[in-house]
Amino acid sequence: MKQILWALLAIFFGLYICQSVADPDLWWHITVGRWIVAHRQVPSVDLWNMFSSGEIWRAYSWSVEIVFALVERFGGERGLMALQIAFAFSISFTFFWVFSKMARDHFVGALVGAYTTVACFNHFTLRPQSLVWVLFALCLAVADRISERGASPGRLLALAVLGSLWGNIHLTAALGLGSVFLWIVQDSAHGFCPKKALLGAGAFFAGTLITPYFGGEWLTFMAKGGHPLQYSSISEFQPATILQYSTVFVVLMGAILIAAFQAERGAPPAGRLVLGAGMTLAGLTAIKFLPFSAIVLGALCAAWWRHSGHIPQPKGTDHLAEGLRQMRKGFNSLERGTLMASGVMLVGLIFSQSASLYKRPAVSLDSIPKGAVDFILDRKLSFPVLNEFTSGGYLMYRFSDPATGEPLHKVPIDGRTNVNSPEIWELYRESFVGKSNWDGYIKKVQPETVVWRRGSAMSTLLGLSPEWCGVYASGDDDESFVVFIKRQEFDRRRGEFASPDCT
Questions:
Q1: Which residues face 391 on adjacent strands?
Q2: Cα separation, 459 vs 380, whole angstroms
Q3: C-alpha count within 13 angstroms, C-beta hemisphere, residue 449
Q4: CA of 336: how far to CAs of 242, 347, 419, in Å?
Q5: Residue 450 — φ and ψ, nearest 5°?
Q6: pLDDT 10s per residue in the chain (503 long)?
Q7: CB within 8 Å of 315: residues ≥ 6 apart
Q8: C-alpha distances in angstroms, 228 versus 67, 172, 248?
Q9: For residue 361, what is the DSSP state?
Q10: DSSP-derived pairing of the beta strands 468-473 and 481-486
């Protein structure tokens, strides 16, 4: 019954972090996946960007992009929602299992797993990086086993397989490489173990070379290493604040660990201390790394409980561990009827959460200009189309062949930060915030049509310009989109459009 409760909790927290599919990058991933499926090869150059077409580009998430494309083809939007739920379950079950194994205690492992899953709530969506959290937790589990029991061929092979999966899913394999080394390099039982750490990290690195690009993703990573600073205006690269949901979870978990080790008058091994502090600093510097921070701190909590948390301390010295021991003791003393009642309650919560998800739209329209693009295509507006960074991936999706992913119209900027040229990015940023050179992006692209967020500086300036006419608005809030066409086209097609800017 306890095992059933453990599984039901993992299911509930997996459903809890699910919302409508809302990642704007999903759409360019689907487009690339369509191209790979149709051509049976991975692209080596960019095909979809107006200013970077033909330049070297590696589809480092190709494996997941194929899955996205096939699910979207055969399952549509509901299929994408189902895939997102599957991603959520893989995250929650992995966290529950990994931390239970590391703590050697399913009760504490479930607590830490639930906490870490919820800490990822704000960052979870249908994107390759969500699967990387699963691989990251598994890497720490294998590294912990190597630290405890030695670098057996089976464990090194497991790290190589995880490295290969990571290398074919996302560009952040360097995080796994460094974490494996730092977790193994020192432990409380054996002291410094550089040989084991190098073996583990070497096995992981070797796995990352087994890709269609033969490890060329590392070259892309090195070229992209400064992007969190270069693209600091993008929300996921912005520094964390205490008002953000996940920041509070990471800070609170860090405080719990400090209190736990302070009560013991000790500290985790140096390598793990560096890993925990470094990953937390990375998460506070750029919020996209906060889930990695939560996973590392969760692993440190599980390892602390395994080594010393369950051992009674002198009275009054460790209230945190004593509280957990009492909770665990109380749970273990529950009668079967109470456990069954708890299970029934969890099943009810799971059905309630499932019904809530089913009633929501499968895909959120807040982050994609679906209505605006429908308008552009239905009215046969002229190309090229000027767009924002966040909506560029969706325009790639809509302006490419649904069967082959081949571009029908190229976009000036899209969500792939390693594709957009620095010049275009700077011109876009100035237009986005309405600087004095706000029309530099327009002059560079020479668009016939503009799709932009309503209520932004750019849309306001376009509305005041005599050269542009607003012909579509998808709503009244700041998250909706507007479409502008040139005054000449408005005059040429007079009577087809109503515009508050042009009469």
A1: none
A2: 21
A3: 20
A4: 42, 16, 58
A5: -130, 130
A6: 889 999 999 999 999 999 999 999 999 999 999 999 999 999 999 999 999 999 999 999 999 999 999 999 999 999 999 999 999 999 999 999 999 999 999 999 999 999 999 999 999 999 999 999 999 999 999 999 999 999 999 999 999 999 999 999 999 999 999 999 999 998 767 678 899 999 999 999 999 999 999 999 999 888 876 666 677 778 788 888 887 788 999 999 999 999 888 877 677 899 999 999 999 999 999 999 999 999 999 999 999 999 877 666 666 556 778 888 889 889 888 888 999 999 999 999 999 999 999 999 999 988 899 999 999 999 999 999 999 999 999 999 999 999 999 999 999 999 998 898 889 999 999 998 888 899 999 999 999 999 999 888 999 999 999 999 999 998 765 568 999 999 999 999 988 998 888 87
A7: none
A8: 27, 13, 21
A9: -
A10: antiparallel
The H-or-E segment that residue 186 falls in is strand 186-187
Structure tokens at 208: 């990352």
- How far is the C-alpha of 57 from the C-alpha of 36, rounded, in Å? 14
* Strand pairing report for 449-453 and 385-386: parallel
| Tokens linked to 292 | 């990695």
Rounded Cα distance, 484 and 490, in Å: 9
Output DSSP code: residue 312. Answer: -
Q: Classify residue 334 by its DSSP letter.
A: -
Query: Residue 147 has which token pair?
Result: 């630290």
Global pTM value: 0.95
Q: Which helix (H) or strand (E) holds 192?
A: strand 191-192
SS3 170: coil
Instruction: Give me 81's structure tokens.
Output: 């929602």
From 59, 178, 183, select the one nearest 128 (Cα to Cα): 59
Apex CA 362: angle with CA 359 and CA 366, to 5°?
105
Query: 56: how many CB neighbours lie within 10 A of its CB?
Result: 15
Contacts of 88 (CB under 8 A, 6+ apart): 14, 15, 17, 18, 124
The strand order across the sheet containing 449-453 reads 385-386, 449-453, 481-486, 468-473
Distance in angstroms (rounded) separating the CA atoms of residues 343 and 11: 12
469 neighbors 447 (Cβ within 8 angstroms): no
Q: Which residues are CB-contacts of 231 (< 8 A; sequence separation ≥ 6)? A: 237, 417, 425
User: Looking at residue 53, what DSSP letter applies?
Assistant: T
How does DSSP assign 424-449, residue by residue?
HHHHHHHHHHT-TTTTHHHHHH--SE
For residue 455, CA distances in Å to 223, 447, 462, 480, 481 come to 35, 20, 11, 8, 9
What's the token pair of residue 199?
């073996």
Instruction: Please state the φ and ψ torsions of residue 363, each to the nearest 5 degrees.
Output: -125, 125
Q: Which of 499, 494, 430 is nearest to 468 (CA)?
A: 499
Task: Give, as one character, the DSSP assignment of residue 306.
Answer: I
Token pair of 278, please?
């470094």
